[in-house]
Amino acid sequence: MERERSILFPRGALAVLAGATLVGTTLLGPDALAGGSAPPDIRVIEVKGSDTPKVVAKGVIDQPPEKVWQVVSECASYKKRMPRIEASRLVKQEGNKHTCEVTIAMPFPLSNLTAVTEAVHEVSDQGMSRRWKLLRGDYKFNQGSWEVKPHDGGKKSLVVYTVHAEPNTALPGWIREAAQKKAIPELFERVGEEAAKMK
């Protein structure tokens, strides 16, 4: 059973920074999304049996789904396309399963966080999804997804980013606050900028 919490809940910010592979944050209604690009709607949701909530962000990116998908699906390019990524590589690919190793850059004096995850990619006319789970790394758990669907006749993308992650090492309050206010909006903005470069 999951229950939604206020966006001000600090552990949600911890999950955002720890799980991010990447304008103030505002909560948007359906009418706001229909208008085009906008800051993402961010929800922090309690997860039964876990002290760390799940974070779900939804927003419209002013680029076609195919271009957005190139950015979020190619983990080997996360270092150059996503914010706060120190290193990234595709370990192996078997069919639609992609094993990736991604290191998030943390501010001094904290150590960087590395995770090896297995992601399942699904692509159809209705949209694309990338759902990952932790295999090993500097986390107690790390799972989530990117979902990209056509919006406005396919000219834009409705993007949903979900993450439920907790590193092995606790993060200080100022890091959680910075993640909460900046990490996801910055991530969506960067994905949009990188998608605009795709051919």
Automatic annotation (TrEMBL):
InterPro entries: COQ10_START, START-like_dom_sf. Pfam families: Polyketide_cyc (PF03364). Residues 61-188 form the Coenzyme Q-binding protein COQ10 START domain. Coiled coil: none annotated. Belongs to the ribosome association toxin RatA family. This is SRPBCC family protein. It comes from Polyangium jinanense. The lineage of its organism: Bacteria, Pseudomonadati, Myxococcota, Polyangia, Polyangiales.
